[in-house]
Write a structure and sequence with these properties.
Length: 324
């Protein structure tokens, strides 16, 4: 087994060698741009790690890892267009640097490129990877639609929100791990358990992302702090604050989430303070811990050694402490 930084380095090297260098450049340059912006490389690293957890060299999972990363970035390109987001990882989003049409078309090409990578595996493995990928991809789209729908609804529940982030974010983390395990030929029980571990970890990860969106350091977060508040997104923070607040404070919260001021600074600071005063900020941190620990219970059902399970625990704990 290797360390997380090792897997990251292995993957980045493979990514740089595999970047499409083709014409037309206005199709492929945006793809190169978004893939080279950096990021945590969480999902491909998990694919490589999962493969080696089951005693198979990580090299065999590189194409699956690259497919996951390309798909993830495809979804970001299109999400940024839908959200009219100016920044991604501290840099201009694709549609800002080029234009919306370029972002749509380059994103479409990324989805196809991701599917093509599974053709490098034998028939049985290809079928398993493609089936999982298709299921995950449609769930990500469903999650994105829920996210859009929630912006204009005033009756979103916490349960509905958790379903949305499961589909939009968590299933891809679970799929990343399961793909590595599929390449390694793991048992069905282990495949299910490692997927569940990743899904629960993905829920914790997204809740942490929501928290950092409001309370993260602009220098390290890489995105516009307060972006969810500006976009009136009904996050766990918002929904919990709404439940816990007095009628007067709830009315203020709903008012701010019905307007889009040209200068959002007052809105952001007022809402953040209400998140703190209502206990929503503390509740979100508690929920992050809950799903991280829930993920760890799945380790008992994975047929790997205890030292390898410890690697997964350490990885999960590191996500709880991240600042970006």
């Amino acid at each position: 087994m290797h360390s997380i930084p090792d897997y990251t380095a292995f993957f980045v090297d493979y990514l740089e060698k595999g970047l499409p260098q083709k014409e037309p450049k206005n199709l492929y340059e945006p793809i190169q741009y978004i893939l080279q912006l950096g990021g945590k490389r969480l999902r491909p690293v998990l694919t490589l790690m999962a493969c080696e957890l089951f005693d198979t060299p990580y090299q065999k999972a590189l194409d699956a890892a690259l497919a996951i990363e390309i798909f993830h970035n495809f979804s970001l390109v299109h999400d940024d267009i839908m959200d009219d987001a100016p920044l991604r990882r501290g840099q201009e989003t694709v549609h800002e640097k080029w234009d919306i049409n370029t972002g749509i078309l380059s994103g479409d090409a990324m989805l196809i490129l991701a599917y093509q990578l599974f053709e490098n595996y034998d028939g049985h493995t290809f079928k398993e990877l493609a089936q999982l990928f298709s299921k995950t991809a449609i769930e990500v789209c469903e999650g994105q639609q829920y996210d859009v729908d929630f912006e204009t609804r005033d009756d979103v529940t916490i349960s509905e929100y958790m379903t949305m982030i499961e589909y939009k974010t968590a299933v891809l983390v679970g799929a990343a791990l399961k793909m590595g395990a599929i390449v390694a030929g793991a048992s069905n029980q282990s495949l299910e358990a490692i997927y569940n571990y990743g899904r629960d970890l993905g829920l914790a990860f997204q809740l942490q992302d929501d928290y950092l969106d409001a309370f993260g350091d602009p220098e390290t977060f890489g995105k516009q702090v307060g972006g969810d508040i500006i976009e009136n997104k009904k996050t766990f923070l918002y929904l919990t604050a709404k439940i816990n607040s007095s009628p007067e404070d709830t009315q203020q919260l709903e008012h701010f989430f019905s307007i889009s001021p040209s200068d959002p600074r007052e809105k952001i600071e007022t809402i953040k303070q209400q998140f703190i005063d209502s206990g929503a900020a503390a509740a979100t941190k508690k929920e992050i811990e809950y799903y991280t620990k829930k993920a760890f219970t799945e380790l008992d059902n994975i047929s790997i050694s205890e030292d390898k399970k410890e690697m997964l625990r350490i990885f999960g704990q590191s996500l709880m402490k991240r600042t970006n």
